Amino acid sequence: MNAYRLQGFRGGIADDPFQGVREAFRFGYGLNIRGEENTLKCNQRLKEDLGSDTVITDLILFYVPASNGSLYGFGDTGKIYRKAGGASAWELVYTDSNGKITGAAEYTNNDGSDNYIPYLYWATETKVSRIKLSGTWPTDVEHDWQTLDGDPSWHTMSEALGVLLICDSKDLAMVDFEGGFNRDAIDLPRSHRNKCLLGLDQLVVFGSTKGDKVEEGWLWTWDKIQPSWIQRRMVAERGINALLQGEFLMIQAGVRGGLYFWDTSNLLRIKKLPGEFGWVNPGGVTIMGGLPLLGVNGSDKCGIYSYGRLNKNEPYALNLEYIPSHGKMENVLIGALTMYEDKIYCSWKDGTTFGTDVIDPDNKAEARYEGLVFDGGESFTQKGFRHIKLVTKPLPKDCTIEVFYKVNQQAEWQLATMQDGSELFDQEGRSKAIFTIETGGDEDDPGTGEEYELAMNLHPNGNDTPEVISATTYFEPLGVL
To answer: How far apart are the first and last CA of the chain?
Structure first.
């Protein structure tokens, strides 16, 4: 009898159904693959934050965790929301009559009286508005403070090179430390539209698009000293969507889930997000404890993905860490991500419903693991798959595990059963379970075929989670026919 063993899960989601880095799997979600021990267990779940189900009525595209301790959200119909501390509920503080807010940031500059104070800035299609962080809503809002060249899609803004830079069609606009405004700080060739930007040491890196039908995204650098851009690099994707600085500069480009590395010299496509399509909003990225996170849209596997590693001995791994509280991975939108008071916040749209989610520290998420396609190196040899043995940590009360399998890449997963006929491993305190394979594959000889896949559903209870150490499938070669 031969054995196919799954043990170790840090490799993350593979690009290929048959192979990946060591300990990779075909797909999964809600899994914690970066715990202290290399076991398979549930991650924390997301829950709707206080007040978001009634107060938030549009899709937040940018969060700004401000230096006054509040978290601000800027929506796609012009609404501005505030959360005054982690225990506070969301409140609507302002509605911009210009509509969709396409960029927002905090920046400290001269108020005109030699007082250097922090402001909140935000942009709509042709206008920049602002308010002092110490100001009163809506009384102190400086509505239409400045005029932009105009772009209906994005005016992503960020502090870089000591100034506030704002994407504005083919230009970058700038607010300087003295409060001065320059609408054309840098000018790109016509037909380019700046979409995202990021300060990188003595440079600012920004990404542009040439429209929804042109397979060209461009990366640019500038140092604020030169009269124009310094470097540019074309990416053969439909625009640059988001930039994120973790262990390296990561770029999400195009609508087919491309992730790239660029060090301003070498450009490398490093990963593809699962599904045929997938893209990230400019504000849909953040860093959680050194781990880059991306809010993925446009896929049948939408959610909050991580890509990276937590120490040098681990592989760079892609993992679908969180599904928003609505529980859907398709036909939903993720607007923005941020870290606030050491918790991740995520905005979403589901049909006509909107919300902001936050990590639930008291409850784990339902989790799914799907292994790679296994053929034992002999795709031509028929095999008989008979038993599956799980080795786990002692199972907590009311936690359960389901086991599924496929033979020869069937369309539907088959449910494995335990020897007593039970469909769940639910025996509190036990650390071993044996499942049998009685269906699937050849009708006359169930469980037979050339290729095999294993999947598991992990069902937590409150903050307790099942924890799988290994899953071993026993099989025997049956010949080549």
So the answer is: 19
Residue 105 to residues 101, 123, 145, 346: CA-CA distances in angstroms?
Answer: 11, 9, 15, 17
> What is each CA distance from 169 to 66, 107, 155, 199, 329, in whole angstroms?
26, 21, 8, 19, 32
Could you tell me how far CA 336 lies from the centroid of its own chain? 10
- For 24-36, what is each residue's pLDDT tens digit? 999 999 999 999 9
**Residues 473, 229: Cα–Cα separation, whole Å:** 57
The phi and psi torsions of 253 (rounded to 5 degrees) equal -125, 145
Write out pLDDT tens, residues 276-300: 999 999 999 999 999 999 999 999 9
Q: For the chain, which ranges sit under pLDDT 50? A: none
The region, left, alpha or beta by phi > 0 then psi within -120 to 50, assigned to residue 11 is alpha
Q: For 249, how many CA atoms within 13 A lie in the half-sphere containing its CB?
A: 21
Domains and CATH numbers, the chain: 2-42+368-479 (2.60.120), 45-363 (2.130.10.10)
What pLDDT does residue 404 have?
97
Torsion angle of C-alpha atoms 51, 55, 60, 66, degrees rounded to 10: -60
Measure Cα distances from 53 to 2, 80, 155, 354, 469 in Å: 53, 15, 27, 7, 39
| 310 phi-psi bin (left φ>0, alpha ψ -120 to 50, beta other) | alpha
